[in-house]
Design a protein that fits this description.
Blueprint lengths: L2 E2 L1 E3 L2 E3 L5 E6 L4 E7 L3 H19 L3 H17 L1 H11 L4 H18 L2 H4 L3 E7 L2 E9 L2 E5 L7 H12 L3 E5 L6 H12 L7 E3 L4 H9 L3 E7 L2 H13 L3 E5 L4 E5 L5 H13 L9 E7 L1 H15 L20 H16 L3 E4 L18 E4 L6 H4 L6 E7 L2 H10 L2 E2 L1 E5 L3 H10 L4 E4 L15 E2 L2 E2 L6 H7 L1 E9 L16
Parallel strand pairs: 1-5, 8-9, 8-11, 9-10, 11-12, 13-14, 13-19, 14-17, 16-17, 19-20
Antiparallel strand pairs: 2-3, 4-5, 6-7, 7-23, 12-22, 15-16, 18-21
Bound molecules: nicotinamide-adenine-dinucleotide.
Length: about 500
C-alpha cells in the first residue's frame, strides 16, 4: 500500500515509524497510509526552512513572484489530477473539487502581485533633511496547519502569500486527505522554488505541538475546528508567536417575507448541501421570518430536494459526495437524531440514503429539519453535514438577535428585496462575512477571509491584503544625512 510521506528540503521522505490509514470515503475502504511525523522529522523540516530563509529573504520580490506565475500555470495544467486526488480521499464531486482548486489558484494570482503589494510607505522631509519610510519585512519560518475539507484551497490561502513575502514555510496538512496537498507541493518545486523554502510534514498533534513550541517558527496560520483553533492560538501566543486561527461556524440565512422564494430555494440547495455541508461557509440554518415565509420555504425546499443526488465523485450528475469518515457520518446522524428527540420535525430524512454500488460509503442524504429552536444541541453546535435546519421567528430583529447571540460568526446572508432591510442587516450583524442575496459570501482573493467571535482567533484575516500584513512585520526608518559643515547641537527634547 502507498505510504504518503513528507516533503522536506525539496525531497520526498517516508517516515514509517508511525502511520495512519487514509480512506476512500465513497467505498469505505482504506486505500493509502500516511506517515505521522515524530518531533525529529518536524524539526528537520523547520531546520530546512530556517537554512533556506537567509537567501530567500533577499531574493527580489519580482523573482519570487515569477515562480508563482509558473506555479499557477502548473496548477492549471494538472488540475484534473489534483481534482482526482481530492475526490479519492475527500469524496467531493469533481466539479466541486474544480471550484475549490480555482479559488486556490486565485490566491496564487494575487500572490503574483507581490512586488506591488510589498511596496512600502515613504515620506520625504518629515523634518529638515529628514526622510522616513516604512518597509514590510518577512518574519522568517512560518507554519500552516490545515483542515480536511479543502485540501487544496486552504493551503493555497496560506503558503503562496507567505512565500512571496519572503518567508519560508512548513505546512502540516490534514492527515485525512493529504495526497492533493503533496502533489501541489511538488508542482511548486517544479515551478523552480529553491529547496527548503516550502516543506510539508504529515502528522498529528505531535507535529502541530512541535511547530507551536519551536522558537524558530515565528508565526502560525491555522484553519480547522474551534476547540483546536483556540488551543493553537493560546499555545502559539504563549510561545511568543503571531497567530491567526480560523475555526468553525454556524451560518444563518434570514429569509424575509418579501424574498423571491424560488430563488431562495435554489440558492439554499447548493449552500446547505454542496460539498455535503462540509464547508465552514455552508448555510446550515435558515431563519424564516413570519409563518407564511416559513411554510412556503419548507414546502418548496422539500419538493426541490427530491431531485438531489448523492454519490461518488467522478459522476458529474451527483450533487454531493460522502462525508469524510464513518465517525463523522455517525456524528451527523447523531445530530439529526438529537434534533428529532428534542422536538424538531425531520421533513426530509437523509439518514439512510441509497447509493447503489457504494453501500459501504459514508453517505448521508440531504436532510431538512423544521421547527428547530435555539436550545437544541443541533442548533448550538456545528453539524458539518448535509443538514439544513429551519428556525421560525416573527420579526427580522428576532432573526438578527439569534445570529448575534450565536457563538460563531463566520458567514451569514439575508434574502430580501428590501434594500433598507439589507443595509441595516449588513451594518448591525455580528458576523465577519455577509451576503445580500448571496448565500456563500466567500471573499475573492483580493479581499480577505475571516469570521468574528469564536470563528476566528487573532486579528488579521486569511489571504488578500490581511495576509501581506500577517506575513510581514513593519519596520520604520528615519534617516538624516547631515550636509557638510552642518552639525546640530545637543537636544534633550522633541523639537517643538
Ligand atoms: P480539525 O480541527 O479536526 O483539524 C484541523 C487541523 O488540526 C488538522 O491538520 C489536524 O491534524 C490538526 N489537529 C486536530 N486535532 C488536533 C489537536 N488535538 N492538537 C493539535 N492539532 C490538531 O478540523 P477538520 O475536521 O480537519 O476540519 C473541519 C473544521 O474546520 C470545521 O469545524 C470547519 O468549520 C473548520 N473550517 C474552518 C474554516 C474557516 O475558514 N473558518 C475553513 C475550513 C474549515
Amino acid at each position: 500500500m502507498d505510504v504518503i510521506g513528507h516533503l522536506i528540503n525539496g525531497r520526498r521522505s517516508t517516515e514509517a515509524t508511525r502511520t495512519q490509514v487514509v480512506f476512500n470515503p465513497a467505498i469505505g475502504e482504506v486505500t493509502k497510509e500516511v506517515s505521522i511525523a515524530p518531533k525529529e522529522t518536524v524539526e528537520e523540516a523547520i531546520a530546512a526552512a530556517q537554512a533556506a530563509y537567509t537567501e530567500w529573504r533577499d531574493t527580489p520580490a519580482m523573482k519570487r513572484a515569477r515562480i508563482m506565475y509558473r506555479f499557477k500555470a502548473l496548477l492549471e495544467e494538472h488540475s484534473d489530477r489534483i481534482c482526482e486526488l481530492i475526490g479519492a480521499e475527500h469524496g467531493k464531486i469533481c466539479h466541486d473539487a474544480a471550484g475549490e482548486l480555482q479559488r486556490g489558484i486565485e490566491n496564487v494570482e494575487y500572490a503574483c502581485g507581490a512586488p506591488e503589494l510589498l511596496k512600502g510607505e515613504h515620506t520625504k522631509n518629515v523634518g529638515p533633511n529628514i526622510d522616513a519610510w516604512s518597509e514590510f519585512q518577512p518574519l522568517g519560518v512560518v507554519a500552516g496547519i490545515t483542515p480536511f475539507n479543502f485540501p487544496a484551497m486552504v493551503p493555497l490561502w496560506m503558503f503562496p502569500m507567505a512565500i512571496v513575502c519572503g518567508n519560508t514555510f512548513v505546512l502540516k496538512p490534514s492527515e485525512r486527505d493529504p495526497s492533493s496537498t503533496m502533489f501541489i507541493a511538488e508542482l511548486l518545486h517544479e515551478a523552480g522554488l529553491p529547496a527548503g523554502v516550502f516543506n510539508v510534514v504529515n502528522g498529528d498533534k505531535v507535529a502541530v505541538d512541535t511547530l507551536l513550541e519551536d522558537k524558530r517558527v515565528k508565526a502560525v496560520s491555522f484553519v480547522g475546528s474551534t476547540p483546536i483553533a483556540e488551543y493553537i492560538y493560546s499555545t502559539a501566543a504563549a510561545n511568543g508567536k503571531r497567530c491567526q486561527a480560523l475555526g468553525g461556524a454556524k451560518n444563518h440565512a434570514i429569509v424575509m417575507p418579501d424574498a423571491d422564494m424560488d430563488n431562495v430555494v435554489n440558492q439554499l440547495l447548493g449552500a446547505a448541501f454542496g460539498s455535503s455541508g462540509e464547508r465552514c461557509m455552508a448555510l446550515s440554518v435558515a431563519v424564516a421570518v413570519g409563518q407564511r415565509a416559513g411554510d412556503e420555504l419548507i414546502e418548496k425546499m422539500k419538493a426541490a430536494m427530491e431531485s438531489l443526488k448523492v454519490g461518488e465523485c467522478s459522476d458529474k450528475t451527483n450533487d454531493f459526495g460522502p462525508l469524510i469518515t464513518k465517525e463523522h457520518k455517525d456524528k451527523v446522524v447523531g445530530y439529526i437524531n438529537s434534533a428529532e428527540e428534542q422536538g424538531a420535525a425531520v421533513i426530509v430524512d437523509g439518514r439512510n440514503p441509497t447509493v447503489p454500488g457504494y453501500e459501504n460509503g459514508y453517505f448521508v442524504g440531504a436532510t431538512l429539519i423544521d421547527n428547530v429552536t435555539k436550545d437544541m444541541t443541533s442548533y448550538e453546535e456545528e453539524i458539518f453535514g448535509p443538514v439544513l435546519q429551519v428556525v421560525r421567528v416573527d420579526t427580522m430583529e428576532e432573526a438578527m438577535q439569534l445570529i448575534n447571540d450565536h457563538e460563531y460568526g463566520n458567514g451569514t446572508c439575508i434574502f430580501t428585496r428590501d434594500g433598507e432591510a439589507a443595509r441595516y442587516f449588513s451594518d448591525k450583524i455580528e458576523v465577519g462575512m455577509v451576503g445580500i442575496n448571496v448565500p456563500l459570501p466567500v471573499p475573492v482573493s483580493y479581499h480577505s477571509f475571516g469570521g468574528w467571535k469564536r470563528s476566528l482567533f487573532g486579528d488579521l484575516h486569511a489571504y488578500g491584503p490581511d495576509a501581506v500584513r500577517f506575513y510581514t512585520k513593519r519596520k520604520t526608518i528615519t534617516q538624516r544625512w547631515p550636509s557638510a559643515g552642518v552639525r546640530e547641537g545637543k537636544t534633550f527634547s522633541f523639537p517643538s
